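Below is a concrete protein record.
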Amino acid sequence: MVKQMQLHRMENREKSGLTTFGSYWGKGEVSSEAKFILMNEDNSNVPVQSRITAYWPDGTVKWAAHTANSDSMSKLITVETVLKDHRNKETNSTLSEERNKQEIIERDTKQAGGNDNTDILITEEKDSLFVQAGTTSVRIWNKGTKLFEQFHTSECKAVEKAELVALLEERSIEDDVAIKRDVPYLGVIKETKIEECGPLRCVIKITGIHQHAITKREVLPFILRMTIGKNQSQIVFTHTFLYDGDENKDFLKGIGVRFYRQMKGENYNRHIKFGTDYGCFHESLAMLLTWHPRVPISIYESQMKGEVLRLNEKDTPEAIQAKENIPIWGEYVLCQDSATHYVVKKKISKEECCYIEGLHGIKAKGTVAVSDEEGGFAIGLKDFWQKYPSTYQVKDLENEEASATVWFWSPEVEAMDFRHYTTTGYSQTYYEGFDEMGATPYGIANTNEIRLTAIATGIPSDEWMERFFKQVQKPCVYIANPEYYHELGAFGIWSLRKRENEAQVWLEDQLEKGLEFYLEEIKVRNWYGLFSYGDVMHTYDRTRHCWRYDMGGYAWQNTELVPTLWLWYCFLRTGREDIFTMAEAMVRHCSEVDVYHLGPYKGIGSRHNVRHWGCSCKEARIAMAGHHRFYYYLTGDYRLGDIFDEVKDGDFALLELDPLRHFFNKEEMVYKTHARTGPDWSTFTSNWMTEWERTKNQAYKEKILTGIQDLKNAPLRLISGSDFEYDPKSSHLRYIGEQATGGFHLIICMGAPQAWFELARLLEDEEWNQMLADFGRFYYMDHEKQMAFTNGLIKDRISTFPYMAAAMAAYGATYYQDKELAKKVWKELKECLSTEAKNSVFAINPVYHAGNQEILQEMSSVSTNVMSQWCLNVIVALDLIPEELPESFFGG
């Protein structure tokens, strides 16, 4: 039995060597023992390396990740499975053909890297791993401060070694004087692990911490992944650092990776090139444009073309004479100090000499190349200007050993200050949760991606640098058409775009206007920076014509009301590259900066605030696996595997910080903490479902079933509560009455419907399906009917913000075939824009000379809460109850 999935290269994405992409399969279709085949449009085979990333409950493949060389792939590709069906006999002709075909593919895959038939070979030695990946080799250390040595290809020795570096500006008070010291640290490796190794690539995970050479103080743990491809002259580094310092003393002055190269040949044949706004900044260390002696201009022109010069006394006496008496520029810096400015400067390598500035620009491309007479290397840092302050610092170019440091946080700018913006809380005035302070950055993280590429000869051309820039910033991604994902129910319930009547056109217009506004707002408001890029803000201030960046819980969104899911479902519906890029940035930010990876809050995150880690509410919902499953399954990203490992037991953090600690007497509790059905327990189900499907660990399935059974036993089933006592050890929920702290809408506005819809398909539990339907139907009852339905048990509890429950109500309408409920859902989704968006219907109006814009395109009543929830619920309702959408209801 053969199954096929067709994919295509996303628009505006470059062929970039090895690429990894996800495939999705229906339940029961693909055995876990299946082999995967990759074919181009012309049916030619492309070698592929595959791994399973998620399973259906019956053990069949749900998601798989495939690695192949995009340079060999057509725009359209097909993933095909060859199944081992042990129920059929060997004489079955179809099965025999498939097995014969598989034998050919396995032979071809052995040749994945090139002309030889050897796999990537990793030799484990005493203190290192030696990786021989065809024509590429590197030695990776498992102890000490050297990250790797001898990154060589068949054509050149590109980089001799590398290390991880950090600078802390350590502040103290000595004799009533404030002291600042820049203290250097080097990364020390604690463990090196082979995560994946096959015929096409290997992935090495290195963990450790930065250490001071003298005091031996350890700070800033790191996780580094090196991806090395067969016959690929490139290594991809995914670098994660965690903050575990004292925010009152440890200010981040710099953190990055430093590469060293043994330089060869004359200084005038040593070059540096930076990717700039337009073209490149290119210089030689010793530029042969002199007054006296006058070097022939043809020599200088050849030099600036990047050609290796062969000078001698006989043919070029003027150049030989001049080279002894011209400045040698041994150090170059490109610093992107803001989202709208960078500077290139250089100096002679002497302490007493100053820098001079060579270029100012707006947005550097994030690439640098260094070369000499025998080759060199290029570095690309993804999202270079978006995650400012980033810097390339290249030193000692005139010496035998030069270094190039990629700084994620640049020492050229003011140190990163992790302290809070205030010393008190503003729970009543500025929506900050509680008055208690909880603004700790301890345990947050940041992840960045570097590409290191060997250069065989000379400085690369500007055209090569442009291609490299596109590979770094827009690497190749393969996806299926929306119809494929939708037909097989990938990621639950969502709709395809249709414009078949006036109502559909109106709704799709609103969805598109909302997206376009936020895509543009990121640029207008400069929502960039190492610790902010990927997030958006919460609430708009129409009087100041800006977002409430300085008002407590109204500033950064931090996944509140799941703009993450809004973006990803919009991407699934459209396949648009710009939405993918925005959602990808949100994944990196929200999974790292908004979440705790160390300490007592590990596995949960911080609610929305002026500072991403500033709110006293530390919530499970912020760290929900559901925010990021899309990116994980579509790209096979290993770092998110770490994140999912952390959050799977995030419920234990509630023992440290009860989310309802200010509302119940701890002494009267049976269990040690609380969990609301949503957003707490709903988040746990998302985390546990992800762990169950990734690893087949039945213990996490049982956690889900335990909670569902407790809800089945509650007086109103899923409608009960939403406040429960909770025991993380047993996963039991204890019913304590009908109180919904914070509002009944909190159950369903933080991603619960999306998690529960997917869960329903996995569990195939009819009572759970009915519980979901009953919840949606109940939410849209008027209060009198709700009281009658519950025999008065809910008392004065009301269902606020009904548009946030539209997806659940649509589910109920579908389950019970309730047309009146379906019509009520559409009426609510239309009318809520009059109350929540102040009749604006996502309208954009020009405001002159506001927001630092000549003409500001303003959506004056916008709130990300409303935008993300309204759009998300419309996307679900369009799939479940489209037949009850009147053709002209939304017209006018």
Remarks:
- The mean pLDDT is 94.
- The two ends are 52 Å apart (CA to CA).
- Residues 502-525 form the longest helix (24 residues).
